Amino acid sequence: MLVAVEFTTHSVGGRRSGPRGGITAQARQARAAANETMEAAAMEAAEMEAAEDLALRNAEKENSAEIFDAEIEEFRELALSAGAEVATLLVQKRSRPDPATLVGGGKLEEIAAAARAAHADVVLFGHDLSSTQLRNLEAALPCRVIDRTQLILDIFARHARTREGQLQVELAQLDYMLPRLSGHGKAMSQLGGGIGTRGPGETKLETDRRRIRKRIEILRGQLENVRRIRREQGRRREANRTPMVALVGYTNAGKSTLFNALGRYAQPHAVTEKTVLESARMFATLDPKIRALRLTSRRKVLLADTVGFIRNLPHSLVSAFRATLEAVETADLLLHVRDASSSMLASQKLEVEKVLAELDVKGKPVIEVLNKSDLLQEHERAGLLHQNVAMVSALHGDGLEELLQRVDEGLVSDPLVERVLCIPQAEGAALAAVEADTLVLEKRFAGDVVWLRIKAPASVMEQFEIFERRSMQ
Length: 473
What we know:
This protein has helices spanning 25-33, 36-81, 105-118, 131-140, 148-159, 163-177, 204-240, 255-266, 315-320, 326-330, 345-358, 378-385, 400-410, 428-437, 458-461, 465-472, and strands spanning 2-7, 11-12, 15-16, 89-94, 122-125, 144-146, 244-249, 289-294, 300-305, 333-339, 366-371, 390-391, 416-424, 439-446, 449-457. By secondary structure, the protein is an alpha/beta fold.
């Protein structure tokens, strides 16, 4: 059973507080102070302002309703991704959360009756619950109560496959559980005993808190080792000058499908390359995946697929999964993959940018990639093309060549340059290296030398400097 609550704290007495509550005070003063010659103009200006204000309020109301509907649908998808069968959905609108139960006494009785009627095993709340709210709700409802963060953690636990991912999930679960232990009632206040204790000893609550804190320290130490290994790998990558390109975006935007499609397009004969799971379920891809690609310029890059973001992603999850998201932090270029067919395209972009700001990577070069373009009508596609984005369909392979070209141009730390080389035909190794590592734009033979006009990253050009100098003589 799902419970979604919309809070309207910006409203006071049914009217929006602030200067937008009808005609402003300034407009009324202007109307009262206007003389006869100016009264008509002042009245007209005030009426226009009131009409514009009403239209703005209506637009904001419609936008708010659209966002809330999207949040409900997203909440339902989260429940389905966790393996739940949704029996019913209850929606409430209230001015502010009730500190004791979130929803208030009357709504709580309705939820309890509906849960009994639907024979629900779990009631899922679309908001985070405090320890007090959790305790009160479990006492009043005939089944388990789970909030939004618990639900996301359960999905993460289901999808974590690597040891690193499992450590991160456990750390996030313990961070979530620690402040909520007091919500489990008398079971947590039993007295403990043992050798060396005097008097009543420590309560079970204190014992469990101590054990959880100790386990959290161990997990953080193990994850720090993971970060250390990743940093060493990053230094080796920097020594080899291999750029990293990371896919980021809202969950279910098609990042994993694009990851696989780019691999197949750039290396069609590499049949042994592993692919990542493509699924419409949220957070289907949790553990990071990295593969090598060769771009059009023959440049070698590493492409990383990362976990998808979501609206109001809990801060504890961002902290716990920082090792996974290191691919984003160390990347030279980010591909922000967005679902072009989504009605919440703009708001999802803002949510992703919030997480990127929290990771302190907002200043990195970013290429906006609008995926699922095959689901758009022609006029919709035309309306998005002017926004300087890469329009692709990862499912059908449309637009991948243009995207790879943009990636080549977007790696500004190692830009593409053109050079003319003059290489003796006897230098077979050098000629083979040019063919393998650069894009040959023009080639001609003159006696026992080969003239080539090539395009390649500046770092690759360094190995051919001697032939470049000969060509300039």
